[in-house]
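DATA SHEET
Item: assembly model
Revision: 1
Owner: S.N.
Input lines:
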Amino acid sequence: MALIECRSLTKAYKRGSGTITPLHELDLDVESGDFLALMGPSGSGKTTLLNLIAGIDRPTGGELCIDGADIATLSRSRLADWRSENIGYIFQLYNLVPVLTAYENVELPLLLHRMPGRERHERVRTALRLVGIADRHDHYPRQLSGGQEQRVAIARAIVTDPRIIVADEPTGDLDAESATAIMQLLTRLNRELNKTLIMVTHDAKCAGYARRALHLEKGRLVEPGRIGSEAEQEAAA
Amino acid sequence: MIAPRYIPVVFKQVWRHRTRSMLTIAGVTVAMFLFIAVQALQKGVHDATSITAADQTLVVYRENRFCPATSRLPERYLERIVRVPGVAEVIPMKVVVNNCRAALDVITYRGVPAEDLTLLGRRWVVTAGSLENWKGRADAAIVGEHLAARRGFKVGESFDSSGVTVNIAAIIRSDEPQDQNVAYVHLPFLQQAAAGGGVGVVTQFSVKVADPTRLEQVGKAIDDEFRTESEPTTTRSEKAFVAQAGQDIVEIVGFTRLLGWGCLAAVLALVANAIVLSVQDRIKEHAVLQTLGFGSGLIARLIIAEGVVIGLIGGVLGAALAVGVVGYGRFSISAEGLSVNVSASPRVILTGLAIAAGVGILAGLAPAWQAGRREIAQCFRAV
Ligand SMILES: Nc1ncnc2c1ncn2[C@@H]1O[C@H](COP(=O)(O)OP(=O)(O)OP(=O)(O)O)[C@@H](O)[C@H]1O
Ligand SMILES: [Mg+2]
């Protein structure tokens, strides 16, 4: 059984008389330890899919089983607990809390878990060291570069040791050099720590770091053969 | 409410909008100062006017007179009052005030016979000077602690009020609110020195009854004794007398109760405004916290804790201000020679702080509930 199983997964919004369907009966399996890149044009439903898997949005149809649990049926508070144990989320714009230092930002998800202060401290230290930013632990987000902020955000995503890490265009706001460093870091998380990664990206180079890439168009997965066909047609036109 | 490990996060959020939080806290401070001052005033009136089961003092006054300047009774009534069944002690008293209307800084003289000093002295603690000094000197005065503190009086000094100059022999502390604000002088001295009345005339008699439960019956018996005289009397318990003679004060203070509620409403509005603004600024941040696994309830409690912090800081500052002002000023409101002490007791302050915290909770309730309820994914799109 795959770690993540989507069956006819659908997300639809009612808009006046019509409906918008960002995700249309999507079937997808992601095995444990996979590194999946999600690509596709803007508005194709990449973020929507990612949010469903991360448990911060709810499907309107189909099934979504993660590690054997049907997360669509969990109550709001159970779902929050589930996220805290199973999901690390990396955002395009880092989304660090500006009034907290790098250290405190990384500590934040650990506050939800009962543990001795010493252990919490050790875990934050380890995470900061892993992303190579231990020397900046007492800096505030505004004192860090975009690449450094994203490292802190990655440390925050892995500090609780979740099985699944989702990233929505994690290099979308970074220069090429920082982007490469972040991609190498994510690859290490997958290869060395065996994290299951799902990453949305517009950049083929970034997608190259993943074990496999899937393409979304208008809420559906498209065959590898047809990849980018629309974008190419648009470019040609 | 929240685990201690979250408290630094709460303080950092309050500190985030320094100017806004400071202004809010300043507003809460002023409002809580007023609230506690009003409560202290209420407590003063309550202490001065509510009769307790142990009260055994009656005041015999001239019927239908309410001001010491107009209540005149013959000193010779004394022998007849003593003979009324149930009466234990009687002290004739002449009262002279420098201001008969309700005012904040009134000096009240009470002229009493030297031989009655032991009766009065039972409820006093002498904090400076000695009662013996008083007996030996005709113009000597025993001054209540509040009055002495308010005017900066010291033993050995002289002061003048209502055209009567006296020399301070002792300063006393007393559980009786009235004692704290008067100057006791020799009765014959006051009868001669002060205008109005003259020798053989007093303002009132202070009567102790043997059995507190028979307070009313004894009072009625005294009034019956003088009903047919040309100078009839009205006798009431001391507290009831204060309540009636100081009716102006009691009514005004009763009105300030509204002022107190108004202050609390202001605190509520101030804190709620600060919390609503800061929560609106942080919709996305709360979505991030929820993504990390913070539940709606926890986020709501963190927001409420911010309200409590603001309310409590303002409450503590306001209480400190109130203690400073009320304690340093030793205010007492006097009317018709009777006074109501304003004192910020620990109980008044603790109640004030509890209310400040409660109002903080109340202020955070609605924004907290909303913040926990938002759809996470929508919050990220809404920017
Ligand atoms: N609350 C909503 N109501 C209506 N439509 C919505 C809502 N949220 C998202 N959508 C629509 O869902 C579609 C998919 O959005 P999504 O954000 O998943 O696209 P995306 O592939 O992540 O695009 P991008 O590359 O620009 O980030 C879009 O057409 C969007 O307008
Ligand atoms: Mg997107």
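QC remark: Chain A touches chain B through 29 residues (CB under 8 Å).
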